Automatic annotation (TrEMBL):
It comes from Candidatus Roizmanbacteria bacterium CG03_land_8_20_14_0_80_35_26. This is Dihydrofolate reductase. Pfam families: RibD_C (PF01872). SUPFAM superfamilies: Dihydrofolate reductase-like (SSF53597). Residues 47-117 form the Bacterial bifunctional deaminase-reductase C-terminal domain.
């Protein structure tokens, strides 16, 4: 996840289990007091470098949590295989974007739709085609 997502969610992040959480930030040293090796790490690597590092450590899957900047970085480099979107039955006049503006286009194929509650919240699963 990106540092803005981390800052918004840090109170709710539990460092139990075997999950490794990596926060992408321009200044990893700023978070050195928060780092827990193997659980919560901070990096300024490029998306490609990060994915390669995780592959070398034996990781086969990665979950990308982030805002428009982080999402755009990984999508632009074709490092995303699937996209999960939660659609809430509510329209906002403002908010965060899914991806930051950029020179790229991503084609999707709908794989699955799951209704999550009586209000009509939907979980949409897409395959990335390009």
């Amino acid at each position: 996840m990106g540092s803005e997502t981390y800052e918004a969610a840090r109170k709710n992040i539990k460092l139990d289990g075997s999950q490794l959480r990596i926060i992408l930030t321009r200044n990893p040293g700023r978070y050195s007091a928060n780092a827990v090796p193997g659980k919560l790490e901070f990096s300024n690597e490029s998306p490609q470098q990060l994915v390669k590092q995780l592959e070398n450590k034996g990781f086969k899957q990665m979950l990308l949590l982030g805002g428009g900047t982080i999402n755009a970085l990984f999508l632009k480099e074709s490092l995303v295989d699937e996209l999960y979107l939660t659609l809430e039955p509510r329209i906002f006049g403002k908010g965060k974007t899914l991806v930051r503006e950029g020179e790229f286009e991503v084609l999707l194929e709908l794989m699955n739709i799951k209704r999550l509650n009586q209000s009509g919240t939907l979980l949409l699963k897409y395959k990335i085609l390009s």
